[in-house]
């Protein structure tokens, strides 16, 4: 239970108020109580300050006259809040031990302070860096290398010859390095193309629960440093996710597509294969990315929900769009209206 | 092998026909044989009665003149059929034992008749209610509480401090309580926001295979009593799924979105974050829900498949829609047509 | 390290060049070095031949004058490449042993040369054919039958009474035979319909990582011979996937839908339930399949991404489409333009 003054010091933030005030937890503005710390990260939330019971707030110095209570002042309140969550972290911690029920090959190399939990399996020629934590029932395949302090959560499967950097988290039931979906058609049916390359994951990468990052056929699948990937995401063989790119849940990146740095790919976005996506591209939810994107910026596709009957009419008319456009053109011709004025719209 | 009379008694349904007739199985109308029981749940299927060979049918009393054979009469034939499946259930049953290869913390509290199968791992301070069944290789994290008669299927991962109610089923390879996807941007890259809250699941909830329900940052993620969630569904941190709401496969609910009671969310629906969805809202498949829905009812979005060339034209015209609308307006102006008559369409 | 002549013999391809030339690996055209073999599968890639450093190429005899170096000539270069990947395969191989930490029921029947890796669990009445390989931590439920040489990868869960044919691969963390999503509404909430049928998978089938194939209620879910299914795919209860059909990542097939043979279903396609899809149907990415498809061919739906502002206008106009169409009709009436000429467009 840190006092407010200790939090000020730990977070490097200027304190206004009583440094001895105990803070027992972090809480959202709407629910925080007198012994809890909350935060305001956006100006639009300042209107909630009248109603909060928070004992102290992290907020921007520009907003300080809006709040009479205790405060920790930050130019980047959301980032300061993120750092505060580390102080109040309540996750279980690694034991630093190999559980008796884990199966660890004699030919695996374990760094200092490695934790391997119950029922995990570490195959031959695996290298686990210092402080690595392999969760219960997780699997690390032959020859894979896991960097320092990386955590592989329970049930995750890392196939053979995968390289994962330092300080990554692979969340539960994720699969890294399964065979890419590569088959050649033949008269006798699909012939599997053995996926001979692997998956290379940089440092500080997160791969969400139940996500799949497939190994490449001839080229490695790559996730660069600092990329963050949510749950149930598909990264197909030979794809590349640039540094610090964020990919939200259920998005799918097809084979060989190269995504730049600092992109934000929203939930359920689908990308075709063999595309190139520039740096700093943002794609809205369910976006249908069928061709390369060469310019940074925000893109979206899709249609909004409507009440069912209205939508049925819209969807039906969608299939007549080309006909409608040509009818408009005919009307314009008949009336001699100049359509050019709208061409750049 | 119950006789028809026994089924009548067990299901509380009026019998027409020979109570001694043996029924060996349930079967679909099209395939049922003379010693099998089938059902008709909708009027539109009555036309199939001429062709069925079923030995007996569950059907509505109003339809009885359409069927000369043995029958169990029910005002709710589909519900009666559901109850009949319980009588013919052929799933493996729990042993009531802890398998020698399971790893159970001394600091876990086990109720009466708990089953823990091979290789499962139960961490410290876990509480398992009476009759709980933990499947092979499943993982229950520190301090989690599982209510009476809940079944955690093989390979499912329940992280720390999760609370699951009674009579739930968590299907194979589902992940409950992994860290929500919360990061603050900084000059050095994404900074993780520790997810300090948890997941609270009510009674009689189903979570499908390979689905993920993430833990919250400051607010718990909540799935209320009687909600049913299909496979490969994403429930992000801080979201709430109201009582008896059904969510079909591959739908994704973003962070903090609050879904009301008795909603039906179809497959591959995507919901943005921080929305509020009223009670009794139905969203059609692949629906793109980008803003809150305040009124009950049926909603949909998207476009229908077309043959490829026709679709290419429609999709191309979609990007010209605003221009088309303005060209129509210009034509109306030129012709002095009153467009107001369509405004309420 | 085979010599080129050995590769020629093994692949049954005519060699042009030095049979003694050592080939150490396969590589993509752009990166292949002088001791590596590459391939050209499509005419459009012939322009890259000027720049490649590959030591030898698999290519079509018609293209031979475009390439002065060593070559293996094939009428089907992509298929020949697929077969070459088998020669250079670097995957770990099965040990043919049952690991001491695996839990195998005395009532399971194991064929010749079965491999069962660490922590796997094989329940009673399971039959494993000759050469079957069960990966670490995988689970095979009561009474399931796995055909010869099929590989069940780490973390995969096969529930009870499932039948899988020969030479299949079930990739990591896939779930086969979980309960279909079947519930009957009642005044007391959803009542589970026990899923009494199972999953039947043919020979030479692939099921991707983290995919789910649910068991049926009364009818088995069926995946026919030679079908290939990618990661994170949902196959709901009672669906049928025809022989040699390919389903890409994150597609979802709802209950009872019957897909024909040799179809290609792209990523994130969603199919409603109870549909029939003809043979040789191709559905483009994110396709919204709400009704049956009776004719072979290529189909697509959806809209392309646009820059955000442009898309907002398009999406907004989409909801006005019916009104726009009627305004066009009014204009045509006012002008007496004949719209019939576009009706068949």
Q: Can you characterise this structure?
A:
3 copies of one chain form a homotrimer. The first copy, chain A, is an alpha/beta fold. Chain A folds into 3 domains: 84 residues, 3-Layer(aba) Sandwich (Udp-n-acetylmuramoylalanyl-d-glutamate--2,6- Diaminopimelate Ligase, Chain: A, domain 1), CATH 3.40.1390.10; 197 residues, UDP N-Acetylglucosamine Acyltransferase, domain 1 (3 Solenoid), CATH 2.160.10; 35 residues, no CATH class. Helix content of chain A is 13%, strand content 28%. Chain A is built from 4 helices and 37 strands. In chain A, the strands form 5 sheets. A 10-stranded parallel β-sheet of chain A has the order 6-9-12-15-18-23-26-29-32-35, with no helix packed on it. In chain A, strands 8-11-14-17-22-25-28-31-34-36 form a 10-stranded parallel β-sheet, with no helix packed on it. In chain A, a hairpin with a 2-residue loop joins strand 19 and strand 20. The longest helix of chain A is centred in the last third of the chain and has 15 residues. In chain A, 57% of the residues are buried. The mean pLDDT of chain A is 96. The interface between A and B is large, with 80 and 85 residues. Strand 37 of chain B pairs antiparallel with strand 36 of chain C, so a sheet runs across the interface.
Features:
flat, ten-stranded parallel β-sheet, 28% strand, alpha/beta, 13% helix, Udp-n-acetylmuramoylalanyl-d-glutamate--2,6- Diaminopimelate Ligase, Chain: A, domain 1, 345 residues, 4 helices, homotrimer, UDP N-Acetylglucosamine Acyltransferase, domain 1
């Amino acid at each position: 239970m840190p006092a407010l003054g200790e939090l000020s010091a730990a977070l490097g933030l200027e304190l206004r108020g009583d440094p001895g005030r105990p803070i027992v937890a972090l809480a959202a503005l709407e629910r925080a109580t007198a012994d809890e710390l909350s935060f305001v990260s956006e100006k639009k939330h300042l209107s909630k300050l009248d109603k909060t019971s928070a004992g102290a707030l992290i907020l921007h110095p520009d907003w300080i006259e809006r709040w009479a209570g205790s405060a920790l002042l930050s130019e980047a309140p959301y980032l300061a809040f993120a750092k505060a969550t580390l102080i109040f972290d309540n996750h279980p911690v690694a034991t630093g031990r190999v559980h008796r029920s884990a199966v660890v090959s004699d030919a695996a190399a374990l760094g200092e302070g490695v934790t391997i939990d119950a029922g995990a399996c570490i195959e031959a020629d695996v290298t686990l860096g210092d402080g690595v934590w392999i969760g219960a029932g997780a699997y690390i395949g032959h020859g894979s290398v896991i960097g320092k302090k990386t955590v592989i959560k329970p049930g995750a499967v890392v196939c053979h010859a995968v390289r994962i950097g330092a300080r990554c988290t692979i969340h539960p039931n994720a699969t890294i390095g399964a065979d890419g979906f590569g088959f050649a058609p033949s008269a006798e049916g699909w012939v599997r193309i053995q996926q001979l390359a692997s998956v290379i994951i940089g440092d500080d990468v997160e791969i969400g629960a139940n996500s799949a990052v497939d190994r490449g056929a001839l080229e490695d699948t790559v996730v660069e440093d600092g990329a963050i990937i949510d749950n149930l995401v598909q990264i197909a063989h030979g794809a590349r996710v640039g540094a610090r790119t964020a990919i939200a849940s259920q998005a799918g990146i097809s084979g060989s597509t190269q995504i730049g740095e600092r992109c934000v790919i929203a939930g359920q976005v689908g990308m075709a294969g063999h595309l190139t996506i520039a740096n700093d591209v943002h794609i809205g939810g369910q976006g249908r990315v069928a061709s390369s994107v060469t310019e940074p910026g925000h893109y979206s596709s899709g249609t909004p929900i409507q009440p069912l009957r209205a939508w049925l009419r819209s969807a039906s008319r969608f299939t007549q769009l080309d006909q409608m456009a040509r009818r408009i053109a005919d009307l314009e011709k008949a009336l001699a209206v100049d359509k050019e004025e709208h061409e750049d719209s």
